[in-house]
Amino acid sequence: MSILEIAGFGKRFTIHHLDKTMPATENIHFSLEAGEFIGIVGKSGSGKSTILKSIYRTYLPDEGKILYDSQRFGLVDLSQVSDRQMLYLRKYEIGYVSQFLNVMPRTTCRQLVTNALLEMGESEITANVETEKTLAHFELDPKLWDSYPNTFSGGEKLRLNIAMATVKKPRLLLLDEPTASLDQQSKVRVREMIEKLKNNGTTLVGIFHDIEFMEGLCDKVFDMKAKKIVLDNKVGVGSES
């Protein structure tokens, strides 16, 4: 049984001052088994981020279903679950990494990662140890650990964002350009963490402009222009888009 299935997905946006409705994307179909990683490729504006944000329920689709096999609730349509259920899923099952960091002010780097673990039920001792291991893995300078992220560079903020999401080891992790502003060494660290999560059973949906980063990492590649899977390493099928 698939852990995630996108069926007939479509999303439109209304530009109210122009009284126009613009399609973001339509007729999207793909599915993932537990532990698989699908990469979504396509030009800017093709709707890649719209799909991720709709899975996370930041957006609601206009067409289709987003079926997710929840550990707590069973098979649900993420566009139809209650707000309370979605908050639970975001807290315990579904992680999201964007290019941007949006956190509570006057909360330190260390506190943000520790709090992510504490809300998962970890003890304070375990949370503190795992926080330091994670921040060290992503090579955030220990001098920054007790600083506020609004003073961080773009790359530092992105690494913190990834640390906060991955430390919870979610069942489903959504990655929206997670390496956009990172240097090569930091990209390697992100790849190592993704591989570790995948090996431990996390299912992943990712958007990357860095095709080299995706090489050998994704089980499937979905092309937004072709609107189909163009690479499926699980069954040995591949084609050029």
TrEMBL record:
Residues 4-241 form the ABC transporter domain. It is a peripheral membrane protein. The keyword GTP-binding does not apply. One of its GO terms (molecular function) is lyase activity. It is found in: Cell membrane. Its main location: membrane. Keywords: ATP-binding, Cell membrane, Lyase, Membrane, Nucleotide-binding, Translocase, Transport. Belongs to the ABC transporter superfamily. This is Phosphonate C-P lyase system protein PhnL. It comes from Sporosarcina ureae.
